[in-house]
């Protein structure tokens, strides 16, 4: 019935147009007078104008329909949908419109995207000291629980990338390329190059003419949770143990940022810092040595930019020289702790010193003993500590790059040590001279960041 009515209406419109056309032909067939010509011309112009108006209305209605479809999605629902997309897709959507670009670049959206749970990723940096162009950054997703084998994803391999002492924070990788600090975001594939302090530092200015600079420099990345700012702490050290001189510099990772020197109190002594650091509760923690036998835990408050330190209370039987100690700070159930694995190879024992109250300088000690059936895993190689931000787990990996390569994952709660073999490492790296190669392994926090730090940026494809 509906189809029939449509056909009837269409036939009526067709007949009306034929009558009008026949009338115009009849009128034009006669010898028109001047008034008739003017009348026909005005009629033609009215029809033309009417048709243009109808076309404009039709075009506007189509555009309005498109906008109405987008407008029907509430903003909170739109944000919820966008946060479920992969980071690479979210970055591409910034070109849709100015509104989308503003939304996806905002700190609120970036922080919400950062809070979503995701799988942690295992990263491995392979650095050739002679040919940096051969360096690689490998990664692999880590399902839970950790499997016994990891295979690096070759599609995620980033060439000409990597550096010394990588540190992971909120989806960013901070590492050193000789004396410069660089920050890489695997989600946006952008590299942030931090300007070198250079002549601003008195120590560097004194040593600029000396071959093989005698000073050491370390960078640590932290996050101010109150002001939502990322900052870099830089320590510059010169001298021998007992005669150390040190400078502290801070860089705010925002537009127009620059290095500023920080003065410290007399309680903060010059110290030799460890390369590994931990950022938690708005502070950066790292272990350091003020002399051959005194180990301290240094805290840098990212918001106030103040430094203080706490001495680790070794027992009388644990007085071991600095170069023979293997210690690192770690996150233990939301508290900062110092892990000592110096004698794990001989006895299977690890010491864990937990800071119970920083102001009162209160510590608690826990002894962790490996199971006898797991001792063979730690007796073959000298081990390094990584993964200290995994909350209840740590990673131990051998000092040398040997095939087959493996890491050890130790669960502090269950006292279980698990061996994880790492595959898909290019074979050519196992045959290279150890003096010209450098490698490091660690887990990225289970989060991804699409945030763009306002700084000098280079894009890697």
TrEMBL record:
Residues 67-116 form the F-box domain. CDD domains: F-box_AtFBW1-like (cd22157). This is F-box domain-containing protein. It comes from Capsella rubella. It comes from the Eukaryota. It holds the Pfam family F-box. PROSITE patterns: FBOX (PS50181). InterPro entries: F-box-assoc_dom_typ3 (IPR013187), F-box-assoc_interact_dom (IPR017451), F-box-like_dom_sf (IPR036047), F-box_dom (IPR001810). SUPFAM superfamilies: F-box domain. SMART domains: FBOX (SM00256).
